[in-house]
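Troubleshooting log. The previous structure file for this entry was overwritten by mistake, so regenerating from the original sequence record. Sequence copied from the archived sheet and checked twice against the printout by T.R.
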Amino acid sequence: MVLEISQQDIRQMSSKDEDKLWVAAARNGCVRSFEKLYLKNHKRIYLFAKRMSNSTSDAEDIVQDTFVKAWQKLASFRVQSLFHTWLRTIASRVCIDRLRVKNVAVWQQSSEYQDIYPSMTSQADTSHDLERMIRRLPDGARSVFVLHDIEGFKHQEISELAGIALGTSKAQLHRARKLLRDSMKG
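Regenerated output below.
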């Protein structure tokens, strides 16, 4: 039985219902439906990945890896969830895995930060300046800051995603906020 849906029916659907429709079709092998999900969500995932990785080229790779994993794991998507939230969780894991692969130290002393980032801007009066300051945070602090303060993850979720202790997540967030405050003061 083929389900036919008109463009008018699709326009009247909520975004969540539309996603459910595309997911159901993609689960049945419809590549075009998955393409619709990609087109709807790739910019959001790219911006998230760029903040997490601090790299345009890494962000592009993360988006690609995220959607490949999403396609592979589509059967595990729970339809009561929002598709973009599920994608963001996958993207978070991809970002964290990349940090592990690069073997980046996520915990450093504040004096080391000052040596590495002496040219932090003194005033963050625009979102562009804030973005620049976030990019200058050390990888671990930036990851936790983006996941918690920008994307809304709880510390327990960050702990599980990143494979770090709950206290480390809290400490990294504290460190990130302190560095941002200090850089705004000059």
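DSSP finds ten helices and no strands in the chain. Archived copy saved in two places this time.
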